[in-house]
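Hi everyone,

Forwarding the result from last night's run.
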Amino acid sequence: MTRMQETVHGWTNAAPPPKLGRSAPYVPSRKKRGRRSIKPVNRPVFAMTDRAAPRKAALRPLPSSQPPVALPAAEAFQPGQFPQVRMRRNRRTDWLRAMVAEHKLSVSDLIWPVFVLDGSKAREAVPSMPGVDRLSIPALIDAVGHAGELGIPAVALFPVVPPALKSAQAEEAWRPDNLANRAIRALKDAVPHVGVICDVALDPYTSHGHDGLLEDDEILNDATLDVLVRQAQAQAEAGVDIVAPSDMMDGRIGRIRQALDARGFQNTAILAYAAKYASAFYGPFRDAVGSKTNLGSGDKRTYQMDPANGDEALRECALDVAEGADMLMVKPGMPYLDLVWRVKQAFSMPTFVYQVSGEYSMLMAAIERGWLDRDRVLVESLMGFKRAGADAILTYTAVEVAKRLKKG
């Protein structure tokens, strides 16, 4: 092997370069028809390798007392397969699992739904929702103050309206001094650092239990809008931070946004229950607010969504976004995780999800029977919403989960 070969190929046993030889390069000739023709001349040239040969000495391996490591044959190594890849490495310890976690549940993700009632009782249990109480305004202030200390950013307020104040036209819904508006004022005075969200819907106030005005067994869409606008204005005047239309009437977001802006409430946000389904998971909630008896055997399938439909939910969301919604809600939660994902991907807007009363009661029933681990299952159920894309979660377990998250 020549020195040139040694220099080019180092100390490996690579094949030598081609032998030197002659070729016939072309040189320019006289012009013909405006172009240059070329003819061969005899001149020695060298065949070169891909890279020019360096002129420094060839590399030599360093002397070592250790024998060379035997590498596996190329065909024995299969990238991306066991045993080189072991997925369990990142699951070995608590700190490592926490460090590589793709999603994290925090107290700031939680919104606590609360029920407020009038009367002398400080609290009153909801039998179908173990651990959930209806609270008087003084008790509500104490409870929300504690929630705020835990870091819970907001509560969602639901009034328990006495039967005597319910009517077919839901006049109580927009009365400035109704129970919901008094509770809003009390909370904003006592715990101003906690946000207050209030539903805009008529079912707590109607004698028939529907979310809209009823005539000849038909829910009147456009007539209901006028009542919803007045209800939202009354809540804004009471100091609510976010109005949450949950009625599912067509066009209500635009009408409410226009009315709030006209009255100077440009900063009052709208959380649209954009994808609210006619679900069987709402039963315990209707017990809590006292609308189940009023609704009787009726249902809300003419205005709430069919559980079979997903594309329709995106159309509903698109309309609410166009009309001025600041946030979007999917309700219920667990049976509709696919919709949470689709809404978040489609609109890239703050996307909320409601772990509704039926979901809560279902978990609690299994926990009471010892079938599920309470601490683990409550957190896991909420983590599923985060993984699906939810930015905030309405859950009756907010206070309990916040305490657990604080403990670590």
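Residues 97 and 204 are 45 Å apart (CA to CA).

Cheers,
N.
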